[in-house]
């Protein structure tokens, strides 16, 4: 059995080219770009809540980095540095090595340095990641910036991660290729960092979809003091989700399914072509799915005939469901 210190040396010390002093001392030392604002965010992933205990550790490592990168994306920030707090229920070399590799590789793909953290044994496995990024002052994509008349946009095809989760939790059967696709979307989401950066100066408000499209759009509406009307048929669907229309609540997978880590954002209607160009540069598909309205309480989803769908705008709430 390795000591705590050997453990750290073996798995957590990685190259950190954008950092003055990385893992190993009492603090890490970083030199922020002069004139930039710092963006900071923390996320917790708890075994049995956010991930299954037996999930592949490499994929869990990737996702732990990805969900934090996604917060940077949603703010339009350039991610730079992370720290990792890790509580391990069973300190296990193989598991930790695979986790650390997955975590590091996802960060490396985005040019982010792993600069420190803390490691303990404890009753449950908990992953706590803090990420730091930079952006020009005043350019953050806040939740509070939506304006009446804005288009509502979403990236990617929401609902796939929820379909993957449904597959793991129930007996629904998917074709092999759909199964793999949805599981990848659930376990290794793609943070839309390049899209977030491309939306600076264009999007009025943005959020990443962790709790469900409507719930997270609802956060933008609350913060901005506006309403919204979404047209269900404009929300793009993956072939995998399209093939599940026999499920009674298949529409809710797209509207209320969490864990997609796509971006939902608003922008002036006249900027629609610029948004499409920005998304093309970022190589991400984006779709206009609705409109911001003045009626603060208005939250509607229309079906293809223009009839309102009866849906809840409330997403997953950890305090309500425990
Ligand atoms: P301290 O007692 O000062 O908290 P530690 O022994 O906990 O120091 O950590 C020693 C070094 O290892 C520190 O630089 C710390 O940032 C790093 N470290 C510990 N755990 C992790 C981790 N999970 N990821 C990255 N670095 C870590
Ligand atoms: Mg410590």
Can you put this structure into words, describing what you see?
The chain folds into two domains: 4-135, PurM-like, N-terminal domain (60s Ribosomal Protein L30, Chain: A), CATH 3.30.1330; 143-302, PurM-like C-terminal domain (Phosphoribosyl-aminoimidazole Synthetase, Chain A, domain 2, Alpha-Beta Complex). The relative contact order is 0.16. The protein is an alpha+beta fold and 322 residues long. Strand 2, helix 3 and strand 3 form a beta-alpha-beta unit. The protein has helices at residues 4-12, 57-75, 93-109, 160-169, 176-187, 193-198, 213-224, 239-242, 250-256, 272-281, 318-321; strands spanning 37-46, 78-88, 113-121, 126-135, 151-155, 203-208, 227-231, 263-267, 286-293, 299-302. The strands form two sheets. A six-stranded mixed beta sheet has the order 6-8-5-9-7-10. A four-stranded mixed beta sheet has the order 1-4-2-3. It is globular. The two termini are 36 Å apart. Helix 2 runs parallel beside helix 3 (93-109) and helix 4 packs across helix 5. The mean pLDDT is 94. Adenosine-5'-diphosphate binds at residues 8, 12, 23-26, 84, 86, 114, 116-119.
